[in-house]
Design a protein that fits this description.
This protein has helices at 2-17, 28-35, 41-45, 51-67, 70-77, 86-99, 117-129, 137-150, 153-165, 279-291, 295-312, 324-352, 360-383, 412-418, 429-441; strands spanning 170-173, 189-193, 196-204, 214-220, 231-237, 243-249, 255-268, 272-273, 314-315, 318-319. It is globular and about 75 Å long. The longest helix has 29 residues, at 324-352. It is built from 15 helices and ten strands. It has a four-stranded mixed β-sheet with strand order 1-4-5-8. The chain is of the alpha+beta class. Among the domains are: 170-286, Beta Barrel (Butyryl-CoA Dehydrogenase, subunit A, domain 2); 292-441, Butyryl-CoA Dehydrogenase, subunit A, domain 3. Bound molecules: flavin-adenine dinucleotide.
């Protein structure tokens, strides 16, 4: 009952205080029905929309119906990791950019849409519903907001339009072999020489570095004193001489991660963001954006998939949905997804008011990653032995090969494996809990 009360409390507060077009608070009776698996949770969490927002939803649907090609939808349905394949992701970004919809979260003057938070939520929901490919977050969701907050006018003028158009693809050079959770221990050294820095060192777990032509990176510019106070933030051209990218294959068999080696790489000092030795402030600012995502929208897709699959599965003549234990587990996940959704809406409201995501992004990160992993586990159990066959051919975009088992089951195991990273990447769950504890307990 405690969870239900919490959902009701935060949703009501959000709807009353932030969402001017909302029809009213969450219906308690309906929450109970969701918990019993009697009503789909989207009926409950969908806001009551104003006629203008309904018209906006219709406009988005109409656009998506026309713009999404079959191969793009196929690619989205077959995505097996956090990252969409680069070809579909960039193709979709170019289509959105042509429409002016590539960066709904950015301020209008830099190419944002000027949508209300309700409209941004509607857009995210509709993209998932229509099977739109996901966009690579390092450019649009991380580098862009960081430059808007901290970049010089010249950096903004050069890089923001290129991020929107997809001309530049960015990767994130934070972690090193000896610096992950303890990021301030990083050792990649940048030594000033004339107007440049000469950079030497190595970065690891660099997602999509093999596709990126730019990297935002933390480097050490001072070796004495407090570790955090000797770090600078650089924008590095990945095509510069001295950079080598070595692949790392993950547990699901995908090439998404890399180790990047930098040997005497020359970077102009004009490519430093913020003051020398003040890169830590920039890094922390960017991490707040990295840690906040509309994870509930993704979670909803997983839960819908599981529910569809459970309806088909026969155990002794009945479907899994007829089993109380299964229904209860699914209902609990739906309630957790609703809670997450309400919290996300609160952060979006803050962003709309020009505020930073703040510590709550750590809370959401933990909530989202752990709920997603529990959902993935339930997905595997639902698919049962159909989750076992390794069938990468069936996951290839445009291939019509009949999979072993139901269509919805083939991505579940690779997704389950890939999503183990959710409680590590961007700061592990333990580190997020430390941040939350510090904020709440003032430690
Ligand atoms: C799929 C994936 C993609 C990634 N992409 C990128 C990327 O694009 N760019 C980038 O820079 N980095 C990236 N990372 C790196 C990621 O940020 C680090 O893996 C993460 O910060 C953890 O650091 P670590 O791997 O060095 O683990 P460690 O820091 O060695 O931690 C090991 C374990 O110890 C625990 N631990 C450590 N310190 C504490 C503490 N103080 N209190 C409690 N527990 C603690 C951790 O929670 C963890 O369980 C990626 C990682 C993954 C898995």
């Amino acid at each position: 009952m405690g969870v239900l009360r919490y959902v009701s409390r935060i949703s009501t507060r959000f709807l009353n205080s932030q969402h001017k077009t909302a029809g009213g608070p969450v219906n308690f009776q309906s929450v109970g029905n969701v918990a019993r698996g009697l009503v789909p949770y989207d009926r409950l969490t969908n806001m009551t929309l104003s006629p203008e927002d309904e018209a906006f939803r219709a406009e988005v649907r109409c656009f998506l119906d026309g713009a999404l090609t079959d191969p793009l939808r196929d690619a989205a349905r077959k995505r097996t990791s956090l990252w969409q394949d680069i070809g579909s992701s960039m193709a979709w970004q170019r289509i959105l950019h042509a429409k002016g919809w590539a960066a709904p979260d950015w301020p209008v003057e830099y190419g944002g849409t000027g949508w209300s938070l309700v409209q941004r939520y509607i857009f995210a929901q509709e993209c998932v519903r229509a099977d739109a490919p996901s966009l690579i977050p390092m450019s649009l969701r991380m580098c862009g907001p960081m430059l808007i907050g901290y970049g010089t006018d010249a950096q903004k003028a050069r890089y923001l339009p290129r991020i929107l158009s997809g001309e530049d693809i960015w990767c994130q050079g934070y972690s090193e072999p000896g610096a992950g959770s303890d990021l301030a221990s990083l050792n990649t050294l940048a030594v000033a020489e004339g107007d440049d820095y000469i950079v030497n060192g190595t970065k690891i777990w660099t997602s999509y570095a093999q596709h990126a032509n730019m990297m935002f990176a933390l480097v050490r510019t001072e070796t004495s004193g407090k570790k955090q106070e000797g770090i600078s933030f650089l924008l590095i051209d990945m095509t510069a001489p001295g950079i080598t990218v070595r692949p790392i294959i993950n547990i699901a068999g995908n090439h998404e991660l890399n180790q990047v080696f930098l040997e005497d790489v020359r970077v102009s000092q004009a490519n430093r963001v913020g003051d020398e030795n003040d890169g830590w402030s920039v890094a922390k600012y960017l991490l707040e954006f990295e840690r906040f995502s509309m994870g509930s929208v993704e979670l909803r897709r997983t839960l819908d998939r599981i529910e569809g699959l459970a309806g088909q599965t026969r155990t002794g003549g009945a479907s899994l949905m007829d089993e109380p234990d299964f229904r209860q587990r699914l209902a609990r996940l739906k309630i957790d997804a609703m809670t997450l959704e309400a919290e996300e809406q609160r952060v979006l409201a803050n962003l709309s008011a020009g505020k930073r995501p703040g510590t709550v992004s750590s809370l959401l990160r933990v909530q989202h990653s752990e709920t997603q992993q529990r959902a993935d586990t339930l997905g595997i159990e639902t698919a049962a032995y159909y989750a076992a066959p390794y069938q990468p051919e069936a996951l290839e975009v445009g291939v019509n090969q009949q999979p072993v088992g139901p269509e919805d089951a083939i991505a579940l195991m690779p997704m389950y494996l890939s999503n183990r990273m959710k409680t590590i990447a961007g700061g592990s769950a333990e580190i997020q809990r430390n941040i939350i504890a510090k904020a709440i307990l003032g430690l």
